[in-house]
């Protein structure tokens, strides 16, 4: 999990860093303005979701400067209630700063901290129902504690608006499994720039950094100051201090590893 600067091909090579980001923000802005479908960012506090959230924030700033009407941008984070205390504190602090800075700048960005239903919590399942401790081949915690709370939020929003779009930080370069998963859903896509959600028929996924390398993500986070005030260098330090397995990010679908 430790970030290592390597020689992987950069998404920024063709146009350069600044122009690539500017063009991406404009592309996102165009998609965001097409209709009134609500957008949601899946945010875990990790590097990939942080990059996506920063891009969305920059997009809303760009649109506001150009006097465009803004629709709400929802940010969802799932607290499993058994998170690493350091990670949990970081994420909650980030959400608090996000909410305050969004209000200050009059941006319609609304963070939502989600939790599992009581019957789906870790201790109820482990002790109350006698489930074994989660392991790679039986990771019941991912479905109950992370996916379902997010799906409930998305389902409710989609029911109110007809459809919804979830922004997630999945990348092809993460692993061969992730590459295969992204390609699979790209092939099923009936809507340009969006892929179908794995669980919900009226929800679409948008992957703005799907072609970025690991180094690209860190370059962006360390070159671009976080607009709501947290220090991305502190995030880098957390990754350096993490175990090989790392912490569970917010999982949006079962094809996303925890």
Automatic annotation (TrEMBL):
Domain Phosphoadenosine phosphosulphate reductase: 40-227
Entries under SUPFAM superfamilies matching the protein: Adenine nucleotide alpha hydrolases-like (SSF52402)
InterPro entries: PAPS_reduct_dom, Rossmann-like_a/b/a_fold, Sulfate_adenylyltrnsfr_sub2, SulphurTrfase_DndC
Any one Gene Ontology molecular-function term assigned to this protein's record: catalytic activity
Protein name per Swiss-Prot or TrEMBL: Phosphoadenosine phosphosulphate reductase domain-containing protein
């Amino acid at each position: 999990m430790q970030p290592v600067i390597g020689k992987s091909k950069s998404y920024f090579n063709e146009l350069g860093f600044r122009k690539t980001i500017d063009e991406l923000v404009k592309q996102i802005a165009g998609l965001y303005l097409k209709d009134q479908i609500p957008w949601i960012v899946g945010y875990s506090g990790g590097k990939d979701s942080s990059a996506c959230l920063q891009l969305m924030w920059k997009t809303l700033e760009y649109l506001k400067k150009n006097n465009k009407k803004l629709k709400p941008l929802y940010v969802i984070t799932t607290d499993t209630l058994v998170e690493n205390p350091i990670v949990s504190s970081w994420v909650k602090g980030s959400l608090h700063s996000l909410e305050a800075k969004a209000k200050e700048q009059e941006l319609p960005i609304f963070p939502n901290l989600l939790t599992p239903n009581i019957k789906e919590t870790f201790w109820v399942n482990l002790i109350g129902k006698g489930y074994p401790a989660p392991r790679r081949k039986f990771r019941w915690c991912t479905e109950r504690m992370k996916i379902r709370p997010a799906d409930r939020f998305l389902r409710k929003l989609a029911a109110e608006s007809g459809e919804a779009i979830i922004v997630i930080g999945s990348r092809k370069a993460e692993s061969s499994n992730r590459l295969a998963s992204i390609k699979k859903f790209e092939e099923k896509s009936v809507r340009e720039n969006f892929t179908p959600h794995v669980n919900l028929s009226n929800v679409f996924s948008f992957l703005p950094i799907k072609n970025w390398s690991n180094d690209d993500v860190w370059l962006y986070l360390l070159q671009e100051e976080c607009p709501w005030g947290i220090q991305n260098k502190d995030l880098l330090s957390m990754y350096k201090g993490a175990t090989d397995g790392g912490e569970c990010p917010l999982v949006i679908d079962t094809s996303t590893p925890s």
